[in-house]
Structure prediction request, 214 residues.
Amino acid sequence: MQDTLKSTITFVKKTLENAEAGHDWFHIERVYKTALNINEKEKGDELVVAFAALLHDIADPKFNNGDEELGPKIAEDFLNSIQVEEETIKHVKLIIQNMSFKNSFDGAAFTSKEMQIVQDADRLDAIGAIGIARAFTYGGFKNRVLYDPAIKPEQHLSKESYKNTTAPTINHFYEKLLLLKDMMNTDAGKAIAKERHDFMLQYLDQFYKEWEGN
Ligand code: ADP
Ligand code: NI
Prediction:
């Protein structure tokens, strides 16, 4: 492994030492591995994919007064400090900016094969067995109920429900997790998403069955 990658891993681990479970080092490590795995098939620039995956959550705007530029800036400064090539730094910074701007209405959003690969890897970590674990962890942190049979899943398909801060965790499957499969960019990402999506459907079936005592 390149020395610059080793230094980056050390830097990210240290920076995220006290991060919450949703965006801790293990999330980064999974996204990193998945992104490299997808890149084997998609053949993007491996170094760009690796740096972007490792640095994509270096400063979550949610915990930094909504500052969208802090993460990209920290990533840029760090990569400069270890003398990574200018072009690579620029590209990595654009990817991180674009990933954190995902909910904005920035019409001229940047895209590239590497950007699509890292975004797919990040989204894949929100679905499947790990995605389920993350959702219930978040729900527990927010003290939400697991499920409320009085609320029908279809009621949660609207954007409005997303703002409902007391919704049961099962709702999150319908408002976000089950929609991610169709948002994948790459063929390799789509293939992995399909397996994880099917697993979530199977999980939900089992969940409802057990809920009824069967
Ligand atoms: P990201 O940074 O990937 O956009 P978030 O910070 O919104 O993700 O969420 C981190 C993790 O917590 C994800 O796995 C996500 O699915 C989960 N999560 C976010 N909002 C909710 C929610 N309302 N209920 C359950 N899980 C949630
Ligand atoms: Ni992430």
